[in-house]
Specification:
The protein is mainly α and 129 residues long. Helices cover 69% and strands 0% of the residues. The longest helix is centred in the N-terminal third of the chain and has 45 residues, at 3-47. Residues 47-84, 104-129 are annotated as: Disordered.
Length: 129
């Protein structure tokens, strides 16, 4: 094997390794830019605090303290972070009011379900209604 063939073999090996590193660098750069773009979108999405109107969107009409479809009044929901700065009595009242609202909603759903099935109502539900 002549001496110049070794030079060609080493040039080919170095060229292939440089090509490999360039391809790896391009892939790494693309993944890095994709990660930065998704990170920017995530920061835009999560940097805004939810508004109190969006917080009460779980009710049927969309607002806190409004009526639901079946006429039950929903208790006003405290704003996020309100429990830290509010008085314990006020938070206890909000908790009890929402508890009673949930119980009434369950009772009305139970009455409606039994009425749809043609089942007799319980005396407790009749006396409360």
């Amino acid at each position: 094997m002549p001496w110049w063939s070794w030079i060609l073999i080493w040039i080919a090996l170095v060229a292939l390794s440089l090509l490999f590193y360039v391809v790896l660098g391009v892939r790494l750069f693309r993944k890095f830019t994709t990660t930065l773009r998704e990170l920017g979108e995530a920061t835009d999405r999560f940097s805004r605090l939810p508004s109190p109107a969006a917080h009460g969107a779980g009710s049927a009409t969309g607002g806190a303290g409004t009526t639901m479809e079946n006429g039950v009044h929903e208790a006003p929901r405290p704003a996020p972070g309100d429990a830290v700065f509010a008085s314990p009595a006020r938070m206890r009242h909000a908790y009890l009011a929402s508890k009673i609202a949930r119980q009434n909603a369950r009772r009305l759903r139970r009455i409606q379900r039994r009425q749809d099935r043609g089942q007799p109502q319980t005396l407790r539900d009749i006396e409360l209604g």
